[in-house]
Amino acid sequence: MWWTPLLLLLLLLLLSTAPRPSRAGPLQKAPVFQLTHQGPWGSGVGNATVSPCEGLPAAGVTTLTLANRGLERLPGCLPRALLSLDGSHNLLRALSAPELGHLPRLQVLTLRHNRVAALRWGPGAPAGLHTLDLSYNLLEALPPCSGPVLPGLRTLALAGNPLRALQTGAFACFPALRLLNLSCTALGRGDHAGIADAAFTGAGGAPLAALEVLDLSGTFLRRVQSGWIRDLPKLTSLYLRKMPRLNGLEGDIFKVTPDLQQLDCQDSPALTSVHTHIFQDTPLLQVLHFQK
Ligand SMILES: *[C@@H]1O[C@H](CO)[C@@H](O)[C@H](O)[C@H]1NC(C)=O
Ligand SMILES: *[C@@H]1O[C@H](CO)[C@@H](O)[C@H](O)[C@H]1NC(C)=O
C-alpha cells in the first residue's frame, strides 16, 4: 500500500482548493450582483445613449430620483405609476408635454439644474401634475400658450433661467397656478420691459385668479406696474428682494390686491421712493420688509 499517503495528500489538496460550501458562497457573489445592478446608472456620469432602462425599479414604484445621471432625455421606460420624479442635475435640453404622456399619474416633476432651453406645451401632459420645478435651466422665453394645458398646476418654479421677458398671457396654460417663482431670472435686464401688460392673464383675458405667491427677487425690474399686477387679484405674498434697479413703489399698484399680507423688499438698494398711500389698499398687510 505504498500509494496510500500519496492518495491522502491528493485528497487533502483537493479539499483545500474546492469552493467552500454555503458560508462563503453568497458573500463572494455580492459584488458581482451590485456591478450588474448599477450598470450605467451607478457611475454618476452615466450615458443616456446606453440602455437607459437598465437598473430601473419595478413597475409599482411611485417616487423616483434620477438625479446626476448625465441624462439627455427622460427614459421612455419609467414606471407608469410614478407620482413624483426628480431628474435634477442632468443634461436635458427640452421638455414637451407628449414626452410625459407615458407618466399619466405624475404629480411632481423636478428638473432643476438641467439645460432645458425649449418647452412645448400641448395635449398629452399628465392631468394631475401640480408641481413643476424648472429652476436653473436655460429658458430665455416661454412658449405661447392659449388655453389650459396643465389645469391642475399649482406651483411653477422658473428661478435662475435667463428669461428676459414675459409676453401677454404667458401663463394662460396654468389657470390654477398658486405659486410662481421667477426669482433670479433676467427679467428687465438690458432694455427689455420685462413683464408685458396682461402677462398674467389667462384664457380669454381673465386674470390669474388663483395666484397667491409671486417671487421676482433678483430680477432687474424697475417697477411694479399696474398693467400686470392688476391680473393677480388673490396675491398674498410678493417677493422683491435683491432687485438692484427697483426704484419705486407708487401709484395704485396694490388697489387690486387687497389680500396682500407679505411684501418683502429686503436688499433692494435703489428703492428710495415708496408712497405710503399705496398701503391704504392693503388692509391685511402683516409683514413688510424694507431693510437696506
Ligand atoms: C456615450 O456613448 C456614446 C456612444 O456609445 C459614446 O460615443 C460616448 O463617448 C459616451 N459618453 C460617455 C460620457 O461615456
Ligand atoms: C424661489 O426660488 C428660489 C431658488 O430656488 C428660492 O431660494 C426661493 O425661496 C423661492 N421663493 C419662494 C417664494 O418659494
Could you explain the architecture of this structure?
Residues 1-24 form the signal peptide. One of its GO terms (biological process) is long-term memory. The chain has three helices and 14 strands. With 292 residues, the chain is an alpha/beta fold. Helix 3 links the parallel strand 9 and strand 10 (237-239). Bound molecules: 2-acetamido-2-deoxy-beta-D-glucopyranose (2 copies). One 2-acetamido-2-deoxy-beta-D-glucopyranose is lined by residues 135, 157, 159, 181, 183, 213, 215, 239.
Strand line-up across the major sheet: 1-2-4-6-7-8-9-10-12-14
In one word, what is the shape? elongated
**Which hetero compounds are present in the coordinates?**
2-acetamido-2-deoxy-beta-D-glucopyranose
Residues in β-strands, percent: 5-15%
Question: What is the CATH superfamily of the largest domain?
Answer: Ribonuclease Inhibitor
How many structural units, i.e. domains? 2
Q: Specify the number of helices.
A: 3
CATH architecture of the largest domain: Alpha-Beta Horseshoe
- Helix-strand string: HHEEEEEEEEEHEEEEE
Count of distinct strands: 14
Measured between the Cα atoms of the first and last residue, the distance is 103 Å
Q: What is the fold-level CATH name, i.e. the topology of the largest domain?
A: Leucine-rich repeat, LRR (right-handed beta-alpha superhelix)
Uncertain residue ranges: 11-50
- What is the helix content? 10-25%
Mean pLDDT: 82
Q: By helix and strand content, what is the structural category?
A: alpha/beta
Under CATH at level 1, the class of the largest domain stands as Alpha Beta
Rg result: 28 Å
